[in-house]
Specification:
The structure holds two protein chains of two kinds. By secondary structure, chain A is α/β, with parallel strands linked by helices. Chain A has a single domain, classed as FAD/NAD(P)-binding domain (3-Layer(bba) Sandwich). Chain A contains eight helices and 16 strands. In chain A, a hairpin with a 5-residue loop joins strand 7 and strand 8. Chain B has a six-stranded antiparallel beta barrel. A five-stranded mixed beta sheet of chain B has the order 2-1-7-5-6. In chain B, helix 3 packs parallel to helix 5 and helix 3 packs across helix 10. The chains are: A alpha/beta, B alpha/beta.
């Protein structure tokens, strides 16, 4: 497939695939086609992109600091005002969760982050951590700016909804859109949606599992959140303050009680109307660490389970895909390689309370 | 006459108010103002009849009260949970009501404060709401616990012709049917759309369809079907096999709401279509009404909130409203059709009544003309593709701003159904199937009455696994009746002082939705309705493919978010068993160690253990504290790399911002939880 019009097809929605595609084109001189849904600022966000998240692996936190510096510089070249500074608060209901957050706080302090302990009184006292000045990619502004940057980088953008992707065993793919066909020599499944859609379950690592996720946009609460982003690991809930745009809440696990879990996590005050709601599935690994693998029975490469800090690793992942990672990055990726379903003891992260077994009991929103 | 904007009791075509009992006048108070009405009025219809059509402001934009945007009201002294929707709340003699939330002023509503409020704000300011704040648009009645549970073979949502036909066929097949209808009477929009020449009149058609709900004598041993119509009940939640509906009932002279849970294996969605809002500046000013809403207001309650009317329409259906208003004594100054030189039998009727007619023009912008004692509208019109300057301008009390129709698919979306954008009809239509749920009538995109009836019957047959005959949707040839035009979208008026909204009701998105920075600025003006999504496609703000996804995410909402008492399960910790997330952190065979503090501290779980005092790189840590010491003891328990440091070695614990020393007391192989 050396004569394919494109060197690589990067497939998937969200920030990470776009940044990887742009890096591969700009820094590594590759001919890239990105297959992703056309950005619409009126779709609900599926995730948030942050420079820090409660992680319990020192190696990951150390690399994350360096990766964030590189990515924020890259995003600065894409446009102004695309990175915001936010306070991240993580609050645990359980003793086990509180200990894990305490460990994260100790790691974060040693890594140079302004991490403080905090307690929250309520029906049950919650213990947690506040991290100041976490860097976040602006959800509203980043999508349109990324599209312009990719166009300037020479990345061909195809709408995922209008493109039929056929991944071949040799890792190449055929792309059919609007009656036309093109090909790419390598296929990179960089978005969880692409992975779930294009790779059958038996072609991806057994560590990966699909988890229901609910995203809800609500009116702004009258009482401010504890931080502009608040994470409740024991509830599977994350709240993100969008300012005048309201509040977006993510709930992992059973959609049937997602509203109840989010409602229990809101500040005191009157009920908040739901303004939008989306239900979808997210791929996570059972040991909590990201997975970088190759499709079983083929050569298409994939990545999943990177969590909210995934976008910060984009330049690092682009180097990995090109085989130019320095030693410490190569070691980090090796520890997170697909392991045929076996837990990876050198990479496993603290796992929040499992909401993975619950199935939707009803489909209404 | 009760209220200055009540049509005369002698008004023909039913415009005296089919729901009214004029022999039973009543009075109630709303935000401290006394309002007169008749039995059969809703709080909203009586308020409009009294001339209280100014709902409030969204920013600086004036917003009018119309049937789609009536706020929640509750009796004085009741908790917010007792609030009810104004449009479905029957007016009750002696009731004392308040709007639930969002008032822009803090004046008292009654007594001397109320008098001052009227002097300061003006007599029309009954509501003075701050609109577009999603937090103020809560619907507590939808969070009520169901008081009654009913089972049936079929639930039919909507008692228009499609719903009635579906129910009638199901009853004929021996099925038990429950019909849920938001309006106070069955028939849906048929009185508005009327009948074509070969059909019986709307009243006769509706009567025949209702009569079919009473089954003829069934053969012996055959199951006997039955039907129950629950009018005034809004189906607001739909799950496979289950519908939640909210209804308002008068109990002991007081209105109260309750939720009913309905279960059936088969559900027909026949919710009709909603009329879209034409896009022009000032399109939600007081005095502007949709043609279907206006028709129902006049027909059911004998209300028209003005002496003069101007009708702007992209289709012929609004002509009927114009004619009926004319017959009821309203001065219909002009009908402005956005279609170029349209053909319609109605045009001749209008000319015969002396109503002036224009074509090829859309409303460009409406401006309020406010004096101390009066309010009216000045409406500018422009050619469809013209420069953004008004080529004609007319004054009026009320503007009928008719639009195209969008299938009402919120419940279909709520049940998990999908939609797709039809480029031919420029509307979102249902796509795909759902087990046990079918869509019929205008909600499915059918246009003619006969097609709506057949689609209702087909929905029942399909749900029962039977084959339905093909449906013909006859269209009157364009030679006689020009097809409906697209929803009017005015050129952007540079001089406009009022925004152009995308839809009526609780959606306050404006045409700025198409501007690249609208979302980036973090505007969140509430729900994005189906009509607003369709408008977004018309304005090229949404790609047609994305419109269906946006509708799916933003149109059908669940209950308000509130603390219902959900508690996370506890996950206790153990001082003898390290947590699983530390397994593998310190090699294949880590140790579980007891540490003693040299200064009497109890170590904090999560703190890191180092072998050197100057080490601060977490990757060089030799252990992690996972539990503090038991009460009365110092130090704690740690997971430790193997081999353990010598017992005499001083260890260093980095906890918070401090560095503390410890010694190893004992160690053993770690077993993780």
């Amino acid at each position: 497939m050396a004569d394919a019009p494109y060197d690589m097809a990067v497939i998937g929605s969200g920030t990470l695939p776009g940044l990887i595609a742009g890096q591969l084109a700009l820094l590594h001189g590759k001919r890239i086609v990105l297959i992703a849904p056309t950005q619409s600022t009126y779709r609900l966000p599926r995730a948030i992109d942050l420079s820090l998240w409660p992680l319990t692996r020192p190696a990951t936190l150390a690399l994350l600091g360096r990766a964030t510096t590189e990515t924020v510089k890259l995003v600065g070249s894409i446009g102004n005002g695309l990175v915001e500074r936010r306070d991240l608060v993580a609050l645990a209901d359980s003793a086990e969760g509180a200990d894990a957050l305490s460990h994260f706080r100790h790691l974060a302090r040693l890594a140079g982050f302004a991490a403080e302990p905090m307690r929250e009184a309520g029906k049950r006292t919650m213990a947690g951590t506040r991290i100041r000045d976490v860097q976040a990619l602006s959800a509203g502004r980043f999508g349109p700016a990324l599209a312009d940057w990719l166009a300037k980088a020479g990345v061909r953008l195809l709408d995922q909804r209008e493109t039929v992707v056929s991944v071949k065993r040799d890792g190449s793919c055929r792309l059919t859109f609007g009656g036309l066909t093109t090909e790419a020599a390598d296929t990179i499944l960089a978005g969880e949606d692409a992975l779930a859609t294009l790779l059958p379950e038996d072609a991806r690592d057994r560590l990966l599992t699909l988890v229901p996720r609910t995203s809800i946009l609500a009116a702004s609460p009258r009482v401010a959140l504890q931080g502009s982003i608040v994470y409740f690991p024991d509830r599977g809930v994350t709240l993100a303050d969008l300012g005048k745009g309201g509040l977006v809440a993510f709930a992992d696990g059973n959609p049937a009680d997602a509203g109840a879990r989010i409602g229990a996590s809101l500040p005191p005050g009157p009920a908040l109307p739901r303004l939008a709601e989306a239900r979808f599935q997210s791929l996570v690994s059972r040991d909590g660490a990201p997975v970088f693998g190759t499709a079983r029975g083929g050569r298409a490469r994939y990545m999943a389970g990177l969590g909210p800090t995934g976008a910060m690793f984009a330049p690092m992942i682009a180097r990995m895909l090109m085989g130019t990672s320095p030693a410490d990055e190569a070691e980090w990726f090796a520890a997170r390689a697909a392991a045929k379903g076996a837990p990876r003891s050198a990479a496993a992260e603290h796992q929040p309370l499992s909401f993975t077994t619950a199935e939707p009991s009803e489909v209404a929103v | 006459m009760s209220g200055p904007f009540r049509l005369p009791a002698s008004a023909p075509n039913g415009f005296s108010g089919t729901r009214l009992d004029r022999a039973r006048p009543l009075r109630f108070r709303l935000n401290g103002r006394e309002i007169a009405g008749f039995a059969g009025d809703t709080v909203l219809s009586a308020a409009l009849a009294a001339g209280f059509d100014l709902l409030g402001r969204q920013g600086t934009a004036l917003i009018g009260l119309d049937p789609a945007s009536g706020p929640a009201v509750l009796p004085v002294g009741e908790s917010p949970a007792a609030a009810l929707p104004m449009a479905r709340l029957p007016a009750v003699d002696g009731a004392d009501l308040l709007t639930l939330a969002g008032r822009r002023d803090r004046f008292p509503l009654t007594g001397i404060g109320g008098w001052v409020r009227r002097q300061v704000l003006g007599a029309r300011q009954v509501f003075n709401l701050r609109l577009g704040d999603p937090a103020a648009s809560v619907t507590p009645w939808l969070d009520l616990v169901p008081e009654e549970t009913r089972e049936a073979d079929f639930i039919v949502i909507g008692a228009g012709v499609a719903g009635l036909a579906a129910a009638g066929l199901a009853v004929g097949l021996g099925k038990r049917v429950i019909i849920v209808e938001t309006a106070p009477d069955p028939g849906g929009a048929l009185p508005y759309f009327g009948a074509v020449e070969s059909e019986a009149g709307p009243r006769d058609q509706i009567a025949a369809l209702v009569a079919a709900l009473t089954p003829a004598r069934a053969p012996k041993d055959a199951p006997k079907g039955s039907a129950e119509i629950r009018t005034g009940a809004e189906a607001f939640r739909l799950y496979p096999g289950r519908v939640l509906a909210h209804e308002v009932r008068i109990v002991d002279g007081k209105a109260r709401g309750r939720v009913v849970a309905l279960s059936a294996p088969h559900i027909v969605i026949a919710t009709g279509a909603v009329e879209r809002l034409p896009i022009f500046a000032g399109n939600r000013l007081p005095g502007i009404y949709g043609s279907l809403d206006g028709f129902n207001l006049a027909r059911r309650h004998g209300v028209w909130p003005g002496r003069r009317a101007l009708v702007a329409t992209p289709h012929s259906h609004a002509y009927r409203l114009a004619l009926y208003l004319h017959d009821a004594g309203v001065a219909v100054g002009r009908i402005v059709d956005s279609r170029l030189a349209p053909n319609s039998r109605f045009i001749d009727f209008c000319k015969a009544t002396g109503v002036t007619f224009s074509s090829g023009l859309v409303p460009l912008e409406a401006q309020p003309v406010i004096t101390r004692d009066s309010y009216h509208l000045s409406v500018g019109f422009a050619g469809i593709a013209a420069t953004p300057a008004a080529s004609a301008r007319f004054d009026t009390d009320t503007l009928v701003a008719a639009g195209s129709f969008q299938p009402q698919l919120a419940l279909w979306l709520a049940a998990g159904g999908r939609t797709g954008w039809s480029t031919e009809s420029r509307m979102l239509v249902p796509h795909g199937t759902l087990d046990g749920i079918a869509v019929a009538g205008a909600a499915a995109g059918w246009r003619s009455t006969i097609a709506a009836i057949r689609s209702g019957e087909a929905a029942v047959l399909n749900l029962l696994g039977r084959t339905a005959p093909p449906i013909d949707d006859p269209v009157i040839p364009a030679l006689y009746e020009t097809p409906d035009g697209p929803n009017p979208v005015a050129p952007r008026a540079t001089s406009a002082r009022q925004p152009a909204f995308l839809d009526r009701g609780q959606s306050f998105f404006t045409r700025a939705i198409g501007e690249a920075d609208a979302a980036a600025k973090g505007r969140s003006p509430g729900l994005l309705s189906l009509g607003a999504v369709a408008a977004g496609v018309d304005l090229a703000a949404f790609q047609p493919l994305a419109a269906a996804d946006i509708a799916r995410e933003r149109v059908a909402m669940g209950a308000d978010l509130a603390d219902e008492g959900w508690m996370a399960p506890d996950r206790p910790v153990s001082s003898t068993t390290p947590p699983s997330w530390l397994a593998g952190r310190f090699g294949d065979k880590p140790l579980m160690a007891r540490l003693a503090s040299t200064d009497g501290r109890v170590f904090e779980p999560g703190a890191l253990l180092f072998s050197r005092s100057d080490a601060a790189d977490a990757r060089r840590a030799i252990g992690v504290v996972f539990a503090g010491a038991p009460p009365g003891e110092t130090g704690g328990f740690a997971v430790l790399a193997n081999p353990a440091p010598p017992a005499e070695a001083l260890l260093f614990v980095r906890e918070g911002g401090g560095l503390y020393t410890a010694r190893l007391v004992s160690s053993e192989a770690a077993r993780f939880s």
